[in-house]
Structures are given as C-alpha cells and as structure tokens.
Specification:
Largest sheet: 6 strands, mixed
Oligomer: single chain
Mean pLDDT: 92
Strand content: 25-35%
Order of helices and strands: EEEHEEHEHHHEHEHEE
Number of strands: 10
Structural class: alpha/beta
Strand order of the largest sheet: 6-7-8-3-9-10
Number of helices: 7
C-alpha cells in the first residue's frame, strides 16, 4: 500500500481576468523509502500541489489518503505535526528563537522531552553543517544559505514519515547543495521516509528515484 495516494486533485482560483486551474485532476502515489522530484516551469502548479499534499491547503475536489486513511480538514493539524513536514523556500524560521530552539520546536510539539529534543536537534544541525557555534544565534545573524540549512535541519529533525521540500537547495552553493541532496536521499532510503522535492535543480531530478513533471496544472505522462 502506498504511503500517500492522491486521486484527481483539483484546486482552482480566480484572478480578475480568469480562473486559474493550478492543480487540475492530479493523481499520484508516493511510497515509503522513495526520493521524488517534482519539476515544471514556473506557474505549472508545483507549489500548489505540494501545499495540498502537505496539508497546507485542502483540495476543491479529489482526495488524499495517507496510510490508507483519508486526509480530511479536521485532522490536518495533527497530520502536519506528526506525519508530514515542509522545508519552505522562505525558511519560516522563528525570528526570536535561536537556531537550536527553532530546530527543537517541532519535537517539543510532539511531546518529546526537552533532553531528547535538544539531542536530536543538535545532531541534525551538525549534519547540515551548522556546528555548536551556530546553536545560539538568531536567524537574522545567519546568511541566507545558513538559514536554509537551519530550516532543513528543523524539518528533518521532526522525524515525520513524509517530508516535502520547496527548492531546498535554492540558496546554497553547489557543494553544500550536493551534501543536502545526499542527506535527503539518505533520509528516504535509510530511514524509510518519503521525500518529495519541488525543484528546478537538474541534479536533484537526476538523483531522484522518480520524477513527476507538471505542466498547466497537470502531470505529464
């Protein structure tokens, strides 16, 4: 059984001039241990589809099932806390929390002990190249690439079965970007988690187990 199954998802919105069919009848399946890339031109619907799969938006029609259970509006908060997490292109770090506190936050929401949360958070920060000299810094004291790595660490530390990432290497140099791709592949293959990356980066698509391509709100064959 697929970890996540989407069936005929639709999401449309109105502008002054037209109705935009951002996601128009999309069906797909994601398996445990899979590392997937979602590609397509700007405006093709990639980020909207990611938002639907991650529970940030609800589809206007169609359905999503996770572990065989339909994802409905009343369970979205628990879904985002315990099952699915997102690496945002805009980082979304809490500005008044230190790097370590940002990374601990999702673990504390899951009712992990402070000691466990600190241990896991620090270990993941080190995996993305942020050692102890960064732990007490605020996000504003980091470069864009360092903020991106902190955001990646926070998401992966949560330990969720599903990890969604929106252009996770966009602010990173090629060497660091390659390290992050290797880390995401390791998370999916070794920990049997499922990772879906929205990207324009061909190196991520080349590293993926499968590539979904969107055009005009639909998946290409």
């Amino acid at each position: 059984m697929a970890l996540l199954k989407a069936e005929e998802l639709c999401y449309h919105y109105r502008t002054k001039a037209q109705t935009v069919r951002a996601v128009d009848g999309v069906s797909l399946e994601l398996e445990r241990g899979g590392f997937y890339a979602l590609t397509g031109r700007s405006g093709s619907g990639k980020s909207t589809l990611l938002s639907l799969l991650a529970g940030l938006e609800t589809p206007m029609s169609g359905r999503i099932t996770v572990n065989g259970i339909e994802l409905k509006r009343d369970v979205l908060t628990l879904y985002r806390r315990n099952t699915a997490s997102v690496i945002f292109q805009s980082f979304n770090l809490f500005p008044l929390m230190t790097v370590k506190e940002n990374c601990m936050y999702p673990l504390l929401l899951q009712k992990r002990s402070e000691r466990d949360a600190e241990r896991i958070a620090c270990g993941m920060l080190e995996k993305v190249g942020l050692d102890g000299t960064y732990f007490k810094r605020l996000p504003a004291q980091l470069s864009g690439g360092e903020q991106q790595r902190a955001a990646i660490a926070r998401t992966l530390a949560a330990g969720t079965e599903l990890v969604f990432a929106d252009e996770p290497t966009g602010n990173l140099d090629p060497k660091t970007g390659g390290q992050i791709i290797s880390l995401l592949r390791s998370v999916s293959h070794d920990e049997k988690r499922c990772v879906l990356v929205v990207t324009h980066d061909l190196s991520i698509a080349d590293a993926a187990d499968a590539v979904f391509r969107m055009s005009g709100g639909r998946l290409e064959e």
